[in-house]
Design goal:
alpha+beta, five-stranded mixed beta sheet, two-stranded antiparallel sheet, 8 helices, elongated
Length: 275
């Protein structure tokens, strides 16, 4: 599997220049209008039509009719580097989950390039499903292509801004996973190209509205919160202390009940012996 270590030095240099420009309050012209505006709590248009890898017309609503959350991402399959790294890292994160695409959640990969075809999407689907190597996942990972209008309608709804660069014949675009509830509500963004399984799991639980979350899952999520600075889920000390306090009270309650029962039985036995 390709890793970030295979990125040419030139790409690192470009990222460094971009980061320095951001610190200075400026971006290179090629990046103007490119980025993500988080729209947490808003809803995507669920009826926008795309073509799936088989060439059939589908909407996002068709893919989540069973109430599962969605992991949405934008790529283009002729991308020379960034998109394949994103998908490689997504596969690595998915491999670390106990949950399975198709059973517990859906993954929707949308091509931002309206010139890409369902045949290309099918080849990419086969490639990444083979890398994932999880039987049954084929029903839960959807590679979609669509018209420019359809792609822009969806990308605008989630605040994903990209553009075509004539000088390089490539798209300039950000990298992120976007998590949706089954009704299309945007619940979380994970930025960048590294998606640890633990963060994926918590974001899926968060988006599920209880549909895939067990009691243990909800307790775990209660003890963690999303930290935008680190772009990950971190321990929530206050909630952990609250949960620890409740557990302590529960243990004390059980202990007092046991002691009360023993004392009651002892008093009853003494009264019986006296009688």
């Amino acid at each position: 599997m390709r890793s970030c270590r295979s990125i040419p030095l030139l790409f690192f240099f470009a990222l460094t220049l971009s980061s320095a420009a951001q610190d200075a309050g400026e971006l290179p012209a090629v990046y103007e209008g490119v980025g993500i505006t988080e729209r947490l709590g808003e809803f995507i248009p669920m009826d926008t039509r795309f073509a799936n890898a088989d060439g059939d017309s589908v909407s996002i609503a068709n893919l989540v009719s069973d109430g599962q959350p969605v992991v949405l991402n934008f790529v283009y399959h002729t991308c020379p580097m960034l998109c394949s790294i994103l998908l490689d890292q997504l596969v690595e994160g998915l491999q670390g989950l106990d949950r399975l695409p198709g059973e517990d959640f859906q993954v929707v990969t949308v091509s931002m390039a309206s010139f890409e075809t369902a045949d290309l999407a099918q080849r990419q689907k086969e490639r990444y499903l083979a890398m994932l190597d999880r039987p049954g996942a084929e029903s839960g990972w959807h590679f979609l292509t669509g018209t420019e209008e359809a792609v822009r309608t969806l990308s605008d709804a989630v605040g994903f801004d990209f553009k075509w660069v004539d000088e390089t014949n490539e798209f300039a675009h950000p990298a992120a996973l976007i998590f949706l509830a089954s009704d299309g509500k945007i619940t979380r963004y994970l930025h960048g190209m590294h998606y640890p399984a633990n963060d994926l799991d918590k974001a899926i639980i968060e988006a599920s509205s209880g549909n895939v979350a067990s009691v243990i899952d909800r307790i775990v999520l209660y003890c963690y919160r999303y930290d935008p600075d680190s772009n990950s889920y971190v321990a929530h000390a206050t909630n952990i202390m609250k949960l620890g306090g409740l557990m302590t009270l529960g243990v004390l309650g059980v202990l007092l009940f046991v002691l009360w029962r023993r004392e009651s039985h002892g008093n009853a036995a003494a009264m019986t012996a006296h009688a």
